[in-house]
Amino acid sequence: MNLHASSVALEGQAVLLAGASGAGKSDVALRLIDSGATLISDDQTELAVKDGVLVASSPETLAGLIEVRHVGLLRMERAVFVPVSLYVELTPHEQMLERLPMLETIDLLGHSVRRLWLPGFAASTPAKIRAALKYPQADEPLFKPD
Questions:
Q1: Catalytic: which of 25, 31, 78, 115?
Q2: Is 99 a catalytic residue?
Q3: What's the pTM value of the predicted model, to 2 decimals?
Q4: Is 107 a catalytic residue?
Q5: pLDDT in tens, the chain (146 residues)
Q6: Domains in the chain, CATH or no CATH each
Q7: Is 130 a catalytic site residue?
Q8: Among residues 51, 99, 107, 146, which one is catalytic?
Q9: What are the angstrom distances between the C-alpha of 94 and each of 3, 8, 19, 31, 121?
């Protein structure tokens, strides 16, 4: 399955970065790579099931390439066949998002993957992605927002 999404590997887990053209997929991928992630693919990610595990890799035509706006097309190290752990839908900054969303998933090739909605160009987006991978989501909020 070919998905219109960039992807990076963080501590052995693939994060899929989806969204409309210009939503910040490559930008968020670059910021995550700058803090230690490894590129899987930019703009198009291939999904497959290997030994019962959903994995992400790059189409050969895009292998190791990332578009860095205002810099150019860059070649870098890439990861292949990384187990998918998170699907992030990048949104415009002005889009209203739930402050404390319920756990949401998306079905990809028969596998349920946690789904987050985050603003593509917010400075905190890479940190939120790392936190979502590292810490479990609480079943109930500790307080009710105003």
A1: 25
A2: yes
A3: 0.92
A4: no
A5: 999 999 999 999 999 999 999 999 999 999 999 999 999 999 999 999 999 999 999 999 999 999 999 999 999 999 999 999 999 999 987 788 988 888 899 999 999 999 999 999 999 999 999 999 999 887 655 555 55
A6: 2-134 (3.40.50.300)
A7: no
A8: 99
A9: 25, 25, 15, 21, 10
